[in-house]
Amino acid sequence: MTDLTQPVTVPADAYISPDYARAEQDRLWRKVWLQAARLEDIPNVGDFVTYDILEDSVIVMRAGPDELRAFHNVCPHRGRRLIDTPAGARNARGNRTSIICGFHGWTFDRAGQCTFVNHQDDWQGKLTAERTALGKVRVDTWGGWAWISLGPDGESLTDYLGVVPGMLDPFGLQNMRYRWRKWIIFDCNWKVALEAFSETYHVQTTHPEFNAFGEFRGWARQHGLHSNIGYDAPKNMDENQAKLRVGSGEDPRLSTAEMQLFTWENANTNTTMTLVNAAQRLKDELPEGTPAPQVLQHWLATARADDAKRGVIWPVVEPSHTAKSGTAWQIFPNFQIGHAVNNMLCYSARPYQGDPDKCIFEAAVFELFPDGEAPATDWEYTKPEEWPPVLQQDFTNMAAVQQGMKNVGFRGTQPNPYMERSVASLHQNLARYMGTGAPKSID
Ligand code: FES
Ligand SMILES: [Fe+2]
After folding, report:
1. Strands 145-149 and 136-142
2. pTM higher than 0.85, yes or no?
3. Can you tell me whether residue 439 is helix, strand or coil?
4. What is d(CA 234, CA 224) in angstroms, rounded to the nearest whole number?
5. How far, in whole angstroms, is CA 73 from its chain's centroid?
6. pLDDT tens-digit profile of 192-237?
């Protein structure tokens, strides 16, 4: 396998080839584990959501208080999709005691067993429970999500996730709730969309406003199927490799306050109002000349205390662990978790209608809320100009990258071996499933 710490190049086929895109359905999407739903969306018995991936659709249902089930969203009679997605919605969502097919009325219970077939005797006793039951899809949970795998056998979710739970469980992701969630269809391959967020190399150019607050140089590391990214930080400030970090410059009290306010107003991600407010007080609570490590420590300690007063308890994570965990994890193939102790930002992307030039992109922002105070949210289709401005900056690259990679003169991508190793990692792992497209060393 190619050493991804060395410079590599990746051919453009994985992004632009219709044949490659077609092959993904069987070789990739029907084999991997996919994050299909947030458990908070299906809290009660009978609650369900659907999840579509290309031609396949899955119903994820809470069958019992502690039991999740997932079914192929298709009627075993003559193949009608059982639960339709409302026009314009990302997915269907609701509560059912039973699922009734709209074509001829076959009915299924929450265990997927068929409980009613009109004129069943006409089948002369051949309609066994097995023939009429809904097809089962493997489902498991981790991090507050339901994960599905369309592959009938294969490794468990735990084996698939590898080191990820060990790195992210201390952050208590399952306790976070949506602050907002939006989706959009982009004119680019799903990999182009995801890769725009899996590296820190673009920050300096795509988000020039951030240069005023600090250095955004960061590392990327591969962990088998998955990878993570984090910021470079001085030795005495290991924790600053993570999402909650102080600004640089003469006075980190002020640059942190400015960076937090800017981030809140222009990205509406990666921070919370508590963190923003605590950052605004740094200049009053700390003397001029306070070194950056103490600014970081004070900022996080006061924000933690402020949240505790309203019943929001942050988990305690060792600074060395926070440092190693970085800012975000790329879960193969199409999900990114940008974690912190009290908030997270998740991205996912998947193909749209099998077209290599289109994808469904989703962003979801979570935070810890006082019990029962999380807002009710749902997926909102949002035009590019209605997203937070920092994300719009990222969006401007999407279609242009897709178009550029089709240019006859394009010789393949050359990801930065230090800062963009997550991009190379994605392709190295894709090649294991797809049998083509592995990164090659640049000699
Ligand atoms: S296709 Fe579902 S009952 Fe006929
Ligand atoms: Fe960005």
Report:
1. antiparallel
2. yes
3. coil
4. 27
5. 23
6. 999 999 999 999 999 999 999 988 999 999 999 999 999 999 888 8
